């Protein structure tokens, strides 16, 4: 698969992945199309060697795995993990606010958001809705995506804030409430959002019991640059990694060993949820795989010592206007290869033996890579690698494509870097 194909596939995934729930569903659909059999965590499994399987759990967690044709208990796992959520704004219950004829929505921040980047953009709504059902223990759960711009958060005019270009403080409660429309009086706006959601789903607004809805940027991604070397799009953090993992595992049945991908939710808020990397969900999945193949608990625990985990999440690319923010020796340039992220604090999982494995695969396959370390006086972000590897103690490497404008409503990568990451993961799962 060439650079153009990977870029198109990533753009298709971005268009579909408008919430963490839509990310998991889009990845599931791609894998089912590639011949993966769907399983459910609540069921008992009978697995076949040479089989390909996909599991979605809690709506926004997704796992897929392939079983070696001659898999033995001592082979262990090759795991790749990413997250399918993204920073932004989520809609609170009872959200409609009447303000001098404007209808606004009450929202809260999700993750570490670049608030300014959400101003003056067309915005839409997507997520999960729970509907009234016959059995109260089994609500009717639907995904919804309005797909059209229905919201906007306008900036203040520079005439009214002459100092705004010197730095403007935004608060989520006061400044980030999006405008949805106009109304004559407060009584007219009750359940206005539910009405839109109900119309999209073809149900009654009264049947909507609860929802988990986020605001997203519906603008299309596009290839830009004089040589078409960049990709500008929303949600590149972390759909770049999801695309690369799905591409890597699709045709990855080996003779020996088990390949696994995990797409977690809630990385942007710390991963400590039932479908986050800090849960025991991945460990339960691995145990079920080994038990279904007839291996013992002792053999499973031994196999973990012969297991690798690639934690796949974006890295910081060098910004030409802010070079002082970066380490002078370990700065990453767009289109020079994917990043191997390191930190002695273990905010990025650092294991020289595991990193050496990655480098040797890249050298063997001619895949470009770079090493990234934060500026010593800058506190960089963290990711799920050290969290997941504490839950299942295996050798781990943090990696991902270098990215500019991280956590903005629109971000920027180099198209060659996406291909280098996907090429590495394919080699990782097939060599």
Automatic annotation (TrEMBL):
Enzyme Commission identifier(s): 3.4.11.-
UniProt record similarity statement: Belongs to the peptidase M18 family.
Superkingdom, natural source: Bacteria
Keyword Translocase attributed: no
One GO MF term: aminopeptidase activity
UniProt keyword terms in alphabetical order: Aminopeptidase, Hydrolase, Metal-binding, Metalloprotease, Protease, Zinc
InterPro entries: Peptidase_M18, Peptidase_M18_dom2
Database matches in Gene3D superfamilies: Aminopeptidase i, Domain 2, Zn peptidases
Protein name: M18 family aminopeptidase
NCBIfam families assigned to the protein according to its UniProt record, in alphabetical order: PRK02813.1 (NF002759)
Required co-factors: Zn(2+)
One Pfam family cited in the UniProt record for this chain: Peptidase_M18
């Amino acid at each position: 698969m060439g650079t153009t194909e990977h870029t198109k596939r990533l753009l298709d995934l971005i268009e579909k992945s408008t919430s963490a729930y839509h990310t998991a569903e889009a990845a599931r659909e791609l894998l089912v199309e590639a011949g993966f059999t769907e399983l459910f965590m609540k069921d008992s499994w009978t697995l076949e060697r040479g089989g390909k399987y996909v599991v979605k759990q809690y709506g926004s967690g997704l796992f897929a795995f392939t079983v070696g044709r001659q898999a033995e208990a001592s082979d262990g796992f090759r795991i790749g993990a990413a997250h399918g959520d993204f920073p932004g704004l989520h809609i609170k219950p009872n959200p409609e606010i009447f303000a001098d004829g404007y209808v606004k929505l009450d929202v809260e921040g999700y993750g570490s958001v670049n608030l300014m980047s959400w101003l003056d953009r067309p915005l839409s709504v997507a997520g999960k809705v729970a509907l009234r059902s016959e059995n109260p223990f089994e609500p009717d759960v639907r995904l919804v995506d309005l797909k059209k711009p229905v919201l906007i958060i306008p900036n203040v005019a520079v005439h009214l804030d002459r100092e705004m270009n010197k730095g403007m403080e935004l608060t989520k409660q006061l400044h980030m409430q999006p405008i949805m429309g106009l109304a004559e009086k407060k009584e007219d706006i009750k359940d206005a959002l539910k009405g839109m959601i109900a119309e999209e789903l073809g149900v009654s607004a009264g049947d909507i019991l609860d929802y988990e809805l986020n605001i997203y940027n519906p603008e299309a991604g596009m290839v830009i640059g004089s040589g078409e070397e960049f990709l500008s799009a929303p949600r590149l953090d972390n759909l770049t990694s999801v695309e690369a993992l799905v591409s890597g595992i699709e045709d990855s049945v080996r003779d020996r060993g088990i390949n696994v991908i995990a797409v977690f939710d809630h990385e942007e808020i710390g991963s400590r949820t039932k479908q986050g990397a800090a849960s025991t969900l991945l460990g339960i999945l691995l145990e079920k795989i080994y038990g279904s193949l007839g291996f013992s608990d002792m053999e499973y625990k031994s196999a973990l010592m012969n297991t690798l985990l690639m934690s796949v999440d974006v890295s910081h690319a060098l910004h030409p206007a802010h070079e002082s923010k970066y380490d002078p020796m370990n700065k990453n340039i767009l289109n020079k290869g994917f990043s191997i992220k390191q930190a002695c604090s273990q905010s990025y999982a650092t294991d020289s033996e595991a990193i050496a494995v990655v480098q040797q695969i890249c050298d063997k396959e001619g895949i470009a890579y770079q090493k990234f370390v934060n500026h010593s006086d800058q506190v960089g972000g963290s990711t799920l690698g050290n969290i997941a590897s504490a839950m299942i103690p295996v050798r781990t490497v943090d990696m991902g494509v270098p990215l500019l404008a991280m956590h903005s409503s629109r971000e920027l990568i180099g198209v060659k870097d996406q291909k280098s990451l996907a090429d590495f993961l394919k080699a990782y799962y097939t060599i």
